[in-house]
Amino acid sequence: MDTIVILVLGLSCLLLLSLWRQSSGRGRLPPGPTPLPIIGNILQINVKDISKALTNFSKVYGPVFTVYFGMKPTVVVHGYEAVKEALEDFGEEFSGRSVFPIIARSNRGHGIVFSNGKKWKEMRRFSLMTLRNFGMGKRSIEERVQEEAQCLVKELRRSNGAPCDPTFILGCAPCNVICSIVFQNRFDYKDKIFLNLMKKFNENFKILNSPWIQFYSTFPGIVKYLPGSHNTVLKNFEDIKSYILEKIKEHQETLDINNPRDFIDCFLIKMEQEKHNQQSEFDLESLVASVNDVFVAGTETTSTTLRYGLLLLLKHPEVIAKAQEEIERVIGRHRSPCMQDRSRMPYTDATVHEIQRYIDLIPNNVPHAAICDIRFRDYLIPKGTNLITSLTSVLYDNKEFSNPEKFDPGHFMDESGNFKKSNYFLPFSTGKRACVGEGLARMELFLFLTTILQNFNLKPLFDPKDINTGPIASTYGRVPPLYQLCFIPF
């Protein structure tokens, strides 16, 4: 009996503490739906489509509101003006990175994407400089992407027009571009180590966008002790890190400080230069985490966009026809597409932009955090508060895009048929935490998609009107459904 009384009293105290913590912060934070003790607003949010739930909340509470994932408050900014203000005008104040529990268990705050403070600033600065030195946005990296595009065409031709699932093939191409920057060398598409890496990347992306991982993020102290798919993610991360460590060891044995070959060499040289600096952020753990970030961010997001893009094109054969007519007229069949072609190919350029807008790959951005107390739109947001910026609300703004729910390259074309830029095109986010690899990703998407359409007719297995383009998961990122198609050579 005494045990039951103690248990009831303990739970009561926990509930009261939860209510006090939530109510004490709500006077300073923006308004929002009333949270329940311990679980917050989780029952009011469809974890299979968080972005839709946040849009519905914005209709009630306005462009800035607060939701609780468990006991922790998260401020949400919704709509173009609020998002731009938070990420640009308050870019430094909101430059912190929210803790993503399962990632934190793997990288322990190291790397580029999920690090904070001085470590983040130094890793980001170094990575941008190194990627640029190895040609990101310049001709040398363009040549690598062009060469990889031809390897992709060669591999697709091996299907002989038979139905195939493009998942792994479309993942191999951007991954090989990253490999050439990080490891100096690319892989053959049939290489078993390469295929194993691709399998782990793809598996992790799918699991990380499942409701189970959202549940893990809300209650990490409990879920980490339970069986579940989060353990598969952690195992995959460890396997990828082990492979990266092997490559680093090979680089250490053959390093020439006067002739850096790739990203790893540059990092090792920086480590050597700062070996007597006890405050240096450049150590082995940071190298492994940074390489992993470049790998994951540079592979999975681009390959998923390519895969989703081809599915949308299958659904809209009229878009394929117009893009191929433009490719034939501007480039022809006997040379590789290049980035200079883009300015003369407004429809193809608009199609690539519309693919990124429509799929809304990372609908709620990667969450930020306040690094100090912030007064934002008359609200006081305490240091450490998480911030979600709804990219969906920008990419699907019906004042900027006439019919945002419809896939239409015309959203990026003016009345004269010229390409039309839009400030609302923010798939890579904006501000201090914008995607490091934006230039490379945009180059890859244009060159890979244009090269595929130059060499193949895309044939669906079903009537286009029966093709489902809805995501199978939409938690942190949108995952397209599995599908098959035929690549018919011209």
TrEMBL record:
<dbReference type="Pfam" id="PF00067">
    <property type="entry name" value="p450"/>
</dbReference>
<keyword id="KW-0732">Signal</keyword>
<keyword id="KW-0492">Microsome</keyword>
<dbReference type="GO" id="GO:0005886">
    <property type="term" value="C:plasma membrane"/>
</dbReference>
<dbReference type="GO" id="GO:0019369">
    <property type="term" value="P:arachidonate metabolic process"/>
</dbReference>
<dbReference type="InterPro" id="IPR050182">
    <property type="entry name" value="Cytochrome_P450_fam2"/>
</dbReference>
<keyword id="KW-0472">Membrane</keyword>
<protein>
    <recommendedName>
        <fullName>unspecific monooxygenase</fullName>
        <ecNumber>1.14.14.1</ecNumber>
    </recommendedName>
</protein>
<keyword id="KW-0479">Metal-binding</keyword>
<dbReference type="GO" id="GO:0005789">
    <property type="term" value="C:endoplasmic reticulum membrane"/>
</dbReference>
<dbReference type="GO" id="GO:0042573">
    <property type="term" value="P:retinoic acid metabolic process"/>
</dbReference>
<dbReference type="InterPro" id="IPR001128">
    <property type="entry name" value="Cyt_P450"/>
</dbReference>
<dbReference type="GO" id="GO:0006805">
    <property type="term" value="P:xenobiotic metabolic process"/>
</dbReference>
<dbReference type="GO" id="GO:0008401">
    <property type="term" value="F:retinoic acid 4-hydroxylase activity"/>
</dbReference>
<keyword id="KW-0256">Endoplasmic reticulum</keyword>
<dbReference type="GO" id="GO:0071614">
    <property type="term" value="F:linoleic acid epoxygenase activity"/>
</dbReference>
<comment type="similarity">
    <text>Belongs to the cytochrome P450 family.</text>
</comment>
<dbReference type="InterPro" id="IPR036396">
    <property type="entry name" value="Cyt_P450_sf"/>
</dbReference>
<dbReference type="GO" id="GO:0020037">
    <property type="term" value="F:heme binding"/>
</dbReference>
<dbReference type="GO" id="GO:0008392">
    <property type="term" value="F:arachidonate epoxygenase activity"/>
</dbReference>
<dbReference type="GO" id="GO:0043651">
    <property type="term" value="P:linoleic acid metabolic process"/>
</dbReference>
<keyword id="KW-0408">Iron</keyword>
<dbReference type="GO" id="GO:0016712">
    <property type="term" value="F:oxidoreductase activity, acting on paired donors, with incorporation or reduction of molecular oxygen, reduced flavin or flavoprotein as one donor, and incorporation of one atom of oxygen"/>
</dbReference>
<dbReference type="InterPro" id="IPR017972">
    <property type="entry name" value="Cyt_P450_CS"/>
</dbReference>
<dbReference type="InterPro" id="IPR002401">
    <property type="entry name" value="Cyt_P450_E_grp-I"/>
</dbReference>
<keyword id="KW-0349">Heme</keyword>
<keyword id="KW-0503">Monooxygenase</keyword>
<feature type="binding site" description="axial binding residue">
    <location>
        <position position="435"/>
    </location>
    <ligand>
        <name>heme</name>
    </ligand>
</feature>
<keyword id="KW-0560">Oxidoreductase</keyword>
<dbReference type="GO" id="GO:0005506">
    <property type="term" value="F:iron ion binding"/>
</dbReference>
<feature type="signal peptide">
    <location>
        <begin position="1"/>
        <end position="25"/>
    </location>
</feature>
